[in-house]
Design goal:
The structure is a homodimer.
Chain A lengths: L2 H8 L3 H9 L19 H16 L4 H12 L5 H12 L9 H17 L9 H15 L3 H5 L1 H24 L6 H37 L16
Chain lengths: ~230, ~230
Amino acid sequence: MRIAELSRRSGVSVATIKYYLREGLLPAGTTTGSPNQATYDEAHLRRLRLIRALIGVGGLSVVATRDVLAAIDDPDVDAHYLLGIAHRAVAPPRRPVPDAEAWQRARTEVEDLVRRRRWCISPDAPAMDQLTDVVAAMRALGMDELLAAIDGYADAAQAVAGYDLGTVAARAATVPPGDPQRRALMVGAVVTGTVLGEAMLSALRRLAQEDASGRIGPGDTRGATGTDPETA
Amino acid sequence: MRIAELSRRSGVSVATIKYYLREGLLPAGTTTGSPNQATYDEAHLRRLRLIRALIGVGGLSVVATRDVLAAIDDPDVDAHYLLGIAHRAVAPPRRPVPDAEAWQRARTEVEDLVRRRRWCISPDAPAMDQLTDVVAAMRALGMDELLAAIDGYADAAQAVAGYDLGTVAARAATVPPGDPQRRALMVGAVVTGTVLGEAMLSALRRLAQEDASGRIGPGDTRGATGTDPETA
């Protein structure tokens, strides 16, 4: 198909498609006769949908998307390693931590949690730092009640991770071992599951919060005006 | 305290504190004698820690942080309404949806889910649109296995929302009804719980995924090289 049809079928503008081509996110089409008349196939359409999901719904940057796509395309990258790349791509940028001692105490709390749950985690996993940042910030803000529920949070996270990995296994089961399609299916499931699964969980938590908050009722808080709005 | 001490105790640079003062995130200090000698108190320190947590750990923009702080400071805003403001602040920017029909089908799926779970949700909740975007993207990518687990995801989200709201209630219980501190405590818990709780859940899910992925083992995927890396 021509670029105009690729644009129509994907819902991505021609200008954006050309940008993805220039940035190396989308492989070049097959040139026919004139250089401005490249043609594209179904694989381009699928790749374009994946790019839109990662950037538009998953919130990944163009650079992070390129890293993830390169890992998907590399046949030497296995699914477990790819998970690490996907996690690095979605990891929020870190800021310098003001209080090194408090951060180290939070790190110990996180390491205790990992040990308590018998999770096997590589020490340089970006999520270890991410969780430590959150725990340190919560302690600094005096959010001890929420930190007391961290094992409940971890139970929920573990249940969801079970679904995520089950999805990958279900994908793999549709193709016999050794089939070249198998790896591509699995790595695709890992990446999209990490990025889109996170967006799904986040939206569902907000809906469940709204429901739970509505059940408590506004009467419990309205009218009790605060004098110290700094207290968080 | 002077700005230099506020900087030392909060770990935020003097330049950044001045930026927050200019942008209206941090209230001005009390001026003493010379205009460059304003003094700050513990409330400024607490507010600064809250700003750093929202921006640095929660990933909020300065504009979104200002909206959230304005809502916290407004005594007419109750905790349930504030939850909506916090959700809007953390909602990812939306992109135009390419396929309006597919989006509408995804919306029906989301509405069915909300009905099935007997969740009470306002129709304009940003999380409804957010979840619809995710479901539409997953359907377009053929991620039907993960969507089949959406009720399992919703169970986990509901469990976590229970902890979140329990935290708010626990905070409120420390102060008698009618006490002016009560509202400030609750709204603070709602905002920080929404933003930091999300970062905590996200980090825990990644750790649980890494553990689950490691247990499956790399042997299942390595060596099965793909020929169609477009397949996601």
